[in-house]
Design a protein that fits this description.
With 186 residues, this protein is α+β, with helices and mostly antiparallel strands. The protein is built from 5 helices and 4 strands, in the order H-H-H-E-E-H-E-E-H.
C-alpha cells in the first residue's frame, strides 16, 4: 500500500502537526500554571476583600460612635481646652459657698497629657441635700473639668447643713500651649 501524497498536502500536514504540538506545549507550559496561579490569587483576594469589608464596617461603626460621643459631650471636650480662670470661678460660684480657697497644687501627667491641678477648698451652708445636688449639676455644666473629692463632710447646724469638701480643677497645659502657638502662627 502506497500512499500518494502531494507535496502541498505533506507541508500542510507538517504545519498542522507543528501547530498542534505548539498549542499543547503552550497550554501545558504557560496557560495551565498561570490559570492555577490566577485562581489561587483570586481566592486570596476574595478573602482579603472580606477582611477589608469587615474592618471597614468596624471603622464606620466606630467612627459613628466617636461622632455621637463628640456631639453628646461637646461641652466636656470644650471644657478640656478652656483655660481656668480662678477669679471667674469665684465670681460664678461665690453665692453657693461660705468660703472658697483656690490654690494651684501640682503638675499632673495623665497618659502623656500634662494638667495643672488647682485645689479648691469649699465650705457652704445649704438648706437641703437637693441644693447640693443642684450645685453638683452646675459644676458638671461648667466651662472647666472639675472633680469633687470625697469625703464630703456634712454637719447639721440648726435648719441648715454645713458642707465642706475639696474639688480639683484640671487645666490642660498642652491646650494652652497649642492655643498660644496657633495664635503666633497667625
Amino acid at each position: 500500500m502506497k500512499l500518494n501524497l502531494s507535496r502541498q498536502t505533506l507541508y500542510m500536514l507538517i504545519i498542522a502537526l507543528v501547530l498542534l504540538i505548539f498549542v499543547f506545549v503552550f497550554a501545558f507550559v504557560f496557560l495551565i500554571p498561570k490559570g492555577k496561579e490566577y485562581r489561587i490569587q483570586r481566592i486570596a483576594m476574595k478573602k482579603e476583600l472580606k477582611v477589608k469589608q469587615k474592618y471597614q464596617q468596624w471603622y464606620d461603626e466606630t467612627y459613628s460612635d466617636v461622632q455621637n460621643l463628640r456631639s453628646k459631650n461637646k461641652a466636656v471636650i470644650q471644657a478640656f481646652d478652656n483655660e481656668f480662670n480662678s477669679e471667674r470661678f469665684i465670681k460664678e460660684n461665690e453665692n453657693c459657698f461660705e468660703s472658697l480657697n483656690i490654690t494651684p497644687k501640682q503638675l499632673l501627667d495623665v497618659n502623656g497629657t500634662d494638667f495643672l491641678v488647682y485645689e479648691v477648698n469649699a465650705t457652704s451652708k445649704i438648706d437641703s441635700p437637693q441644693s447640693f445636688y443642684s450645685f453638683i449639676q452646675q459644676i458638671n455644666k461648667s466651662d472647666w473639668i472639675i472633680k469633687v473629692q470625697f469625703p464630703i463632710d456634712f454637719k447639721r447646724e440648726a435648719n441648715l447643713i454645713r458642707s465642706s469638701f475639696k474639688m480639683r480643677v484640671y487645666k490642660n497645659t498642652e491646650a494652652t500651649a497649642s492655643k498660644a502657638s496657633s495664635s503666633e502662627k497667625r
